[in-house]
Specification:
Layout: E1 20-27, H1 34-41, H2 46-54, H3 58-78, E2 89-91, E3 97-99, H4 102-105, E4 110-116, E5 119-125, E6 129-136, H5 143-150, H6 153-160, H7 164-185, E7 196-199, E8 207-210, E9 221-227, E10 232-239, E11 248-255, E12 259-263, E13 266-270
Parallel strand pairs: 1-11
Antiparallel strand pairs: 1-5, 2-3, 4-5, 6-10, 7-8, 9-10, 9-13, 11-12
The chain binds coenzyme A (COA).
Coenzyme A binds at residues 67, 94-97, 112-115, 133, 150, 175, 178-179, 182-183, 186-189, 193.
Length: 272
């Protein structure tokens, strides 16, 4: 029930410390109020409204609308003087959304978005390279076939050495980490997925290595994996800028313009 719906567009001010990454998680199936959804539409710009109209299926339209509201509402929570409708976005050459207006860039907010079946996750921090991926791990997949096709030889080898019953979960562990990394780099699939490797052989730990084709020395990265519920996995990749070392993740369960609740999701893997 959404009894506390507010339509005043006045997010309360949240503090984002230099050593924090905030993860805004929104289960879009919980956002049902027609007036609220209509209100989200008033925040969108022409480009977003155009994309919204082009979705064929209502559930994709719904997810898109909620994710746009999530991004706009979250950003305004750190800078309430800029209302949710005021944010302007551009993209880099690889399609990564970023703040477009010089005044907004000066806010020093970095963000990255991921969405899948029922769940949207937005990562926000003050500096560095930041990427996030969320996957629904109940979906059918042929873990060994896909790992042969997309993973590095080390990753595929480690996955196949596991008992069959564990291969599927390991596949999603690798997948989310790989996506989070290429998204943090901002280049998506322009980075060959086999040119970097995650070593998940030690329980709870994440090892990382790169080949020259990845175009990165591979230093300074931190990775985390979280379980927000029984059906999804989240991976976060971050490389701090020179001025700060990011160490803490804070998770928030959110319905934009309605509620923000701190939550403790289990971090089941991380770099040491
Ligand atoms: C587009 C891509 C960056 C992410 O795609 P994805 O995992 O399907 O989708 P996600 O929900 O995690 O991320 C999509 C969001 O990432 C952001 N994004 C788009 N391009 C991006 C880029 N180059 N860098 C960082 N973020 C990007 C956008 O906000 C996008 O959402 P929006 O279009 O609604 O604004 C890219 O990695 C891709 O196409 N991946 C294909 C999936 C695949 O084959 N994976 C194999 C892994 S083993």
């Amino acid at each position: 029930m959404q009894s506390s719906i507010c339509h005043d567009d006045a997010p309360r001010l949240l503090q984002l410390k230099q050593d924090e990454i905030h993860l805004w998680c929104c289960d879009d199936t919980q956002v049902k109020d027609a007036a609220l959804l209509q209100h989200y539409r008033t925040w969108l710009d022409e480009v977003e409204l155009g994309r919204l109209r082009r979705f064929h299926f209502a559930r994709h339209r719904h997810q898109f609308l909620v994710t746009r509201a999530l991004v706009r509402y979250a950003l305004s929570s750190y800078l309430p003087s800029t209302g949710p409708a005021a944010w302007r976005f551009g993209t880099n050459d690889y399609g990564r959304p970023m703040l477009a207006h010089p005044g907004m860039v000066a806010s020093g907010l970095e963000f990255n978005l991921s969405h899948t079946h029922c769940l949207a996750v937005l990562a926000i921090c003050h500096s560095g390279e930041l990427g996030v991926d969320v996957e629904y791990h109940r979906r059918p997949c042929d873990a060994t076939l896909l790992s042969d096709r997309f993973f590095s030889p080390l990753e595929a080898r480690q996955l196949k050495a596991l008992p069959e019953s564990q291969q599927r979960q390991r596949f999603f562990d690798h997948w989310t980490l790989k996506e989070a990394y290429i998204k943090a780099r901002g280049m998506g699939l322009a980075i060959p997925l086999s040119s970097f490797s995650f070593d998940l052989s030690a329980p709870g730990a994440i090892g990382f290595g790169v080949e020259p084709e990845a175009g990165d020395r591979g230093e300074g990265w931190r990775f985390w994996q979280l379980r927000p519920n029984a059906t999804h996995k989240i991976a976060v990749a971050h490389r701090a800028g020179e001025s700060a070392v990011m160490t803490k993740l804070r998770c928030l369960q959110v319905v934009p313009n309605v509620s923000i609740k701190p939550v403790d999701y289990t971090v089941f893997n991380s770099t040491r």
